[in-house]
Known about the structure:
The chain is of the alpha+beta class. The chain contains five helices and eleven strands. A hairpin with a 5-residue loop joins strand 8 (161-168) and strand 9 (174-181). The chain starts with 14 loop residues before the first strand and ends with a helix. The model has no long low-confidence stretch (mean pLDDT 93).
Amino acid sequence: MTPGPTNLITDIPGLIVGNASDPALKSGCTVLLADRPFTAGVHIMGGAPGTRETDLLAPDKLVEQVDALVLSGGSAFGLDAASGVADGLRAAGRGFAVGPHRVPIVPGAILFDLGNGGAKDWTDNPYKPLGRAALQAASSAFDLGSAGAGTGATTASLKGGLGSASILLPGGVIVGALVAVNALGSATVGDGPHFWAAPWEIDSEFGGLGPARTFPVGPPRTKLDQPRNTTIGIVATNAKLTQAQCTRMAIAAHDGMARSLVPSHTPFDGDLIFAASLGEAEADPLLLGHHAATCLARAIARAVYLATPAPNDPVPTWRQKFG
């Protein structure tokens, strides 16, 4: 198995991603969309989620496809990023047809980055214009690390960020992941540089250090003293899936979060994964779930590995600490 040409979720034909960040705010948002509506599902395992329009992704609901998916910082304020995306899509004539009207379907999820040292003294919610800016920036190429929804993200001991990864499967099937890592737990083992996700690394994409030789005993390191948590992501494929099959892929992908963040799915995280299908390829759902999980684990490690420093960061980046 090898990554796609860019090792990004946009290796899936038709998908594009846009980031928007505010360095002073130390926050931002990320949007995933395509040249046409796509099938999507969702699964939430964290105990403190913040979401928009996730109920309509259930297999028994009327609308089966969405126009975009949004990941954002800002806690509940960040849900407004999806409104900015919806405004932009409506202006472009996109959306679910209701009589003469078009209503863009834009589910979203947020992470809590309000305590990361950025300027949060705004009076007008900044996330709606950030969402519009992310939509306008959407492309097949986009930045990782301290960008978009991962701009001000943190983990227990290191700065978090935005990550992505992809994998090519037999028969032309592609699986990809996009994730904003702001976990209560840690992406690395103990006090060392080794990533929990190391067994699934490909081509030294996050340092090539391999697995740790020893593992900590006792309670895992967390940031419970300063709770600002949640890891939110998207897994996608060019395989043709129903809404129910997308939901199953999202459920399986949570294994990748558990493999790469310790602890994960806590009562204080809003851990959530969207799943998207855009294409006509045929694939075994079991293999799609497995590779969605491994892609997500790799993307989480890449997010932390590629983070860059900013003023007033509460924790160092991986490169600052380990070189």
